[in-house]
Amino acid sequence: GTASSSSAEAAELASPSALRQPFVIGVSGGTASGKTTVCDMIIQQLHDHRVVLVNQDSFYRGLTAEESAHAQDYNFDHPDAFDTEQLLECMGQLKRAQPVNVPIYDFKNHRRCSESFRKVNASDVIILEGILVFHDQRVRNLMDMKIFVDTDADIRLARRIRRDTVERGRDVSSVLDQYGRFVKPAFDDFVLPSKKYADVIIPRGGDNHVAIDLIVQHIRTKLGQHDLCKIFPNVYVVQSTFQI
Ligand code: CTP
Questions:
Q1: Ligand 1: residue whose CA is nearest its atom 6
Q2: Which of 1, 39, 78, 112 could cross-link 62 (Cys pair, CB 3.0–4.6 Å)?
Q3: Domains of the chain
Q4: DSSP code per residue over the chain
Q5: Residues within 6 Å of ligand 1 by CB
């Protein structure tokens, strides 16, 4: 009867997953466009909320010994280089407010760390960052907001040379060779066409404080609406009826 259905409703409202569907933000853009900086700035400014960052890089498939021997011929910029099924599984769990173990990827050896994981806890905001996070429709569908970091290709190449030689154990000639053979063509074929799915395009990346402020403001408004639904479920119902 009425009593049992209303208690079922109450139970649903009281369950953490019903109350707190995390807000998921996708951050995409070409290699070395400044995605990480943009994510760090958003995380910093949302300090009073629980925010976690998930990198698509963590879901790179580890290379076999044979593939490793010819790593210079491997296309790390093609969608197939990632284990998207596993990414979907992890994101699904986080959306249901369950903690997950995210793999750790080693860019020097093109392998996954077999023994260690990074534990990611449930949170209010999940940021998913990577060159191809807008490529797969199922991954896009998880996102409440999509941001594309738009930085000129020459700036990106300059940063990539510096980063890969300093942090990823490469030499300049191999970086340039990989860029011409794989990185640039895959950017044109897969990354750039996915820009059309973005809600917001940030020119110049992390230098663009105005854009970051606007985005953080919007996220705060959205989280505020979540909170309203949590504390006053009836207000939320009235509001949605009003909108219809
Ligand atoms: N890559 C590589 N070797 C591997 C795996 C990946 O060189 N074993 C490269 C791919 O070629 C791809 C890049 O890693 O282009 C993806 O990382 P990128 O987006 O450049 O790194 P982020 O730090 O996420 O980017 P940003 O500078 O925008 O923060």
A1: 76
A2: 112
A3: 22-243 (3.40.50.300)
A4: -HHHHHHHHHHHHHSHHHH-PPEEEEEE-STTSSHHHHHHHHHHHTTTS-EEEEEGGGGBPPPPHHHHHTGGG--TTSGGGB-HHHHHHHHHHHHTT--EEEEEEETTTTEEEEEEEEEE---SEEEEE-TTTTTSHHHHTT-SEEEEEE--HHHHHHHHHHHHHHTS---HHHHHHHIIIIIHHHIIIIIGGGGGG-SEEEETGGG-HHHHHHHHHHHHHHHHHHHHHHH-HHHHHHHHHHH-
A5: 29, 31-36, 57, 60, 76-77, 107, 110, 129, 131, 183
Ligand 1 atom closest to Cα of residue 186: 15
pLDDT, residue 93, reads 96
Distances in whole angstroms, Cα of residue 222 to Cα of each of 144, 165, 217, 226 = 10, 40, 9, 6
- Confidence (pTM): 0.87
The average pLDDT across 6-14 equals 49
